[in-house]
User: Which sequence fits this backbone?
């Protein structure tokens, strides 16, 4: 190897090392959620303060480490956007792992929404004047509830991915279980019992208060929330999502009729796995850039 080639190789290696040393990484931060008196955690990366910060909410019983959430956050971070990915506590201080169906579920939709509200306030306290919200699966539904209950000029747009609903006969919801839970609450007996809830078939162990709080998220309710949004919204769906087997593919027509900007990724499943991860990233980055310009 000549001296000239050696110098060039040395310069290249130094440049690569310097580029790695300048990379920013999300940090795990703790935040006391005053409204529900619990400690929560989130991964936060601060970038260009002039761009909107993006908060991403995970799906049912999972955490912010779920691969779909991480994929979306990384794509936005690469484009210079600040990201916040909380793990909803589900009544567990600093929850770090997913919860099983047969665990004792005491969390409620209302508590989840309050946590989202306080995380948005936390972003504002860090100097972020504009926030865009992104949800995956049930995280999308919880964001819809949040936007309906606590509208804020800080929120500049919303992106929902794999948006369905949680309650309905076609999903396995049993009317007799709803009546049973309502009867327990009427008697002020908030003891856990087993219910059928989504993929938790007769083994979702929850208090009636917890179970019933999510039952409001039926088909008509979710569509109504989406139709009445006060901020621009985009909904990204996978054409091969198996949940269409339960709800019917006309769900896409119902979504589009609400006025949301509907995008369908051909061949993608509920989690945008494999090569469709990059399709999701591309669509998300394009949408966030569009919302940023508004």
Assistant:
């Amino acid at each position: 190897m000549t001296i000239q080639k050696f110098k060039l190789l040395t310069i290249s290696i130094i440049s690569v090392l310097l580029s790695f040393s300048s990379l920013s990484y999300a940090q795990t931060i703790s935040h006391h959620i005053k409204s529900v008196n619990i400690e929560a955690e989130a991964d936060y990366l601060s970038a260009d303060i002039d761009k909107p910060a993006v908060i991403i909410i995970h799906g049912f019983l999972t955490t912010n480490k779920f691969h779909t959430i991480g994929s979306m956050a990384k794509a936005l971070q690469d484009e210079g956007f600040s990201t916040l990915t909380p793990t909803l506590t589900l009544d567990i201080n600093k929850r770090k792992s997913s919860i099983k169906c047969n665990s004792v579920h005491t969390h409620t939709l209302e508590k989840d929404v309050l946590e989202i509200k306080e995380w948005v306030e936390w972003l504002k306290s860090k100097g972020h004047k504009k926030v865009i919200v992104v949800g995956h699966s049930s995280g999308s539904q919880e964001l819809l509830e949040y936007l309906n209950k606590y509208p804020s000029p800080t929120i500049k747009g919303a992106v929902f991915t794999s948006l369905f609903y949680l309650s309905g006969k076609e999903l396995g919801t049993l009317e007799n279980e709803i009546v049973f839970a309502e009867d327990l609450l009427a008697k002020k007996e908030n003891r856990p019992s087993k219910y059928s809830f989504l993929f938790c078939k007769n083994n979702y162990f929850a208090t009636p208060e917890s179970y019933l709080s999510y039952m409001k998220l039926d088909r008509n309710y979710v569509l109504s929330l989406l139709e009445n949004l006060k901020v621009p919204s985009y909904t990204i769906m996978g054409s091969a999502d198996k949940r269409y087997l339960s709800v019917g593919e006309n769900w896409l027509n119902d979504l589009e009729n609400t006025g949301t900007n509907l995008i369908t990724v051909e061949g993608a499943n509920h989690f945008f796995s494999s090569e469709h991860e990059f399709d999701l990233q591309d669509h998300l980055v394009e949408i966030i850039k569009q919302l940023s310009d508004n």
Summary: The chain has one domain: 24-98+108-165+218-293. Confidence is low (pLDDT under 50) at residues 3-23.
